[in-house]
Specification:
The chain has helices at about 10-35, 45-115. The protein is mainly alpha-helical. The relative contact order is 0.08. It comes from Mycobacterium kansasii. This is PE family protein.
């Protein structure tokens, strides 16, 4: 004997898709009815009229057949929708009265051991490295361990352990380790502020008897002095008397 699992939401979605297909096919048949059921004869002779009548009869028969198919399609969509609704109602009716009974059975075991008799363990929160909760003593799967916390170490934070399984069940999967964060980049040396220093070689003294340049024009009033970062003064040179 094979078991069949029904998903009510999938049945309702399939019924909606089928209804859309039926509407599209019906619109196409209605658009083609005028050109397939009332054909004009190609000529005034009897043969052309007979051919037009033959094709028109086929078009009318197709419209009758398509109407019957549309009615069957509509009934199928209604049955599928009703089936999905019935499955959903049955699931709700079966789960609602059993939950209080299950809570009453698990209450003494949770109070004594912190673990239910029947039920699955809770999963560890992501990014905490917490262990998964243990499943029920009799029936239940262990919860999955939480993923590791972010860390700057080479391996990252360690994931939590999976929860223990019950007598019938499977243990929870261990949480994955977190991806390590790259260490902070050290700050570079501070740049030296101020203007760059410049130095120039000393100018040799002019020989005796050399033609001297005319005296420079007197300078105007001095503006505010700038304070350079550093300077290199040139040595004074004195020309010998000629």
């Amino acid at each position: 004997m094979s078991f069949v699992f029904a998903a009510p939401e999938a049945l309702v979605a399939a019924a909606g898709d089928l209804a859309t297909i039926g509407s599209t096919v019906g619109a196409a048949n209605a658009a083609a009815a005028a050109n397939t059921t009332s054909l004009l004869a190609a000529g005034a002779d009897e043969v052309s009229a007979a051919i037009a009548a033959l094709f028109g009869a086929h078009g009318q028969a197709y419209q009758v057949l398509s109407g019957q198919a549309a009615a069957f399609h509509q009934q199928f969509v209604q049955a599928l929708t009703a089936g999905g609704t019935s499955y959903a109602a049955a699931d709700y009716a079966a789960a609602t009265p059993l939950q209080p009974l299950l809570d009453a059975i698990n209450a003494p075991f949770v109070a004594a051991t912190g673990r239910p008799l029947i039920g699955n363990g809770a999963n560890g929160a992501p990014g905490t490295g917490a262990n998964g909760g243990a499943g029920g003593w009799l029936i239940g799967n262990g919860g999955a361990g939480g993923s590791g916390t972010s860390s700057t170490t080479a391996d990252g934070g360690k994931g939590g352990s999976g929860g223990a399984a019950g007598l019938f069940g499977s243990g929870g999967a261990g949480g994955p380790a977190a991806t390590p964060r790259p260490p902070a980049k050290p700050a570079g040396p501070a740049e030296r502020a101020g203007m760059p220093c410049w130095s120039a070689p000393a100018v040799p003294a002019a020989p005796a008897g050399a033609r001297q340049m005319p005296a420079a024009r007197p300078a105007g009033p001095a503006g505010p002095a700038a304070t350079p970062a550093c300077s290199s003064a040139l040595p004074a040179t004195v020309a010998p008397a000629g």
